[in-house]
Amino acid sequence: MTAPIRYLVRRQEFAPSVAGVQRVLPEKWATVATFAKPADAHAECAKLLAHARRTLNPFQLGGPSLFYQTSLPPYAFHDYLLDHGLTPPPTALSSSPNYVFWWVKNNRTFTDDDRAVVWRACDKLKVFDVTEEDDRQAAWLVVENEWLDENRARYFDSEGPDQRYRVQVAERFEVREVHRSRRDASRAEQQLAALLREESEDDGVLYFDAEGKNHEWAAAPLFSVRKVPAVGDLNGSSAFVVARRRLADEPTSLPRWEVWEQLGYGNGRELLFAVGDGESADGHLVEMVRKARRTVNPFALIGDEFTRRPLATHAVTDAEPDELPNGLSVEDAFATLRRLDTTPPPPDADDLLAGWYDQVVQWSPEFVDVIWGTFADFRLFEVVEVPFG
């Protein structure tokens, strides 16, 4: 019998590099190894971390300035390096200390202890960690998978244009039920799939799952089971599932198919955890949103779902204004931002994409909330109430 407690070694996820900088993706981790004993997990984590310290430039992670890597102010970081026998760059106390180049230049001569000194000071960069996973503290969710309607794709196979088909949309689904055990969730999954097949007339339709494998109607993965951590006790008639919205998914690419460019744009979700009451879920939500708003650039996320151009690009190129989710046009939103009494002043349109991360460190959390509410009134996270099966 599988032990209910496992220890996961996780890797912090970063956004693709832009101008040599990789942004931290808040709350986004990938499991790289699983162990039954905590000592083995911590040993593997230490091994991976040592390798990362030799191969990664910490000053290219998180953001373009020391603010994103360390909680120490520049002068304190400078003195910390001196105290540990390392010579900071000549520009260390200037307004633009070039630690990126300093690391590239010196990394080959650094010892492992030298690298550890720098990485310890970069306390905002986790890279790897160990977390405990307990099946006794888990919720098992039955989700109904979403499929691309057949009239939104073109068929390129020799079977001919009369072949009916559907394509699974990755990370788009509806949560139907929550269960306290995998066995109950698997049983519910089978029952819901059987009921849907009885009510539907899709016999003969070819289904392509998210990995590009095809299935006949009778075996298509219409539902699936997802496990999430359970925070606190789940004792009521329903649970509240907290999910992250995928605001900038790349278009899906599957063998033998061409799909619309906007497929998956802004509609994917990642399930995070489940709690027993709505008030507790809302509390988690507020804290997660506040954290994410200081690390995510709204101007790089929202835009035209067909052209995939970001909002700021429309304003810079004088394109016809799109309507934002809160009913404002791009033109009105920029006018609103410029009327705000702020110090420093709001960025110009052409600085929004490049300058957001440099500006946001100077703004109060309240002003960041104002910007998000004015320009991008959509949900970074959401809470879904799901009945127990």
Explain what the structure shows:
With 389 residues, this protein is an alpha+beta fold. It is 30% helix and 26% strand. The protein contains 10 helices and 14 strands. An 8-stranded mixed sheet has the order 9-8-7-5-10-13-11-14, with helices on one face. It is elongated and about 75 Å long.
Please supply descriptive tags for the structure shown above.
10 helices, four-stranded mixed β-sheet, 389 residues, single chain, alpha+beta, 30% helix, eight-stranded mixed β-sheet
Total strand segments: 14
Output the strand order for the largest sheet: 9-8-7-5-10-13-11-14
SS-based class: alpha+beta
The separation of the N and C termini measures 25 Å
Proportion of residues in β-strands: 25-35%
Specify the helix fraction band.
25-40%
Most strands sheet: 8 strands, mixed
What is the rounded Rg? 24 Å
Rounded mean pLDDT score? 75
What is the number of independent domains? 3
Following the backbone from N to C, one meets helices and strands in this order, namely EEHEHHHEEEEHEEEEEEHHHHHE
Based on Cα principal axes, name the global outline.
Answer: elongated
Low-confidence stretches: 151-160, 248-266, 303-326, 341-347
* H/I helix tally: 10
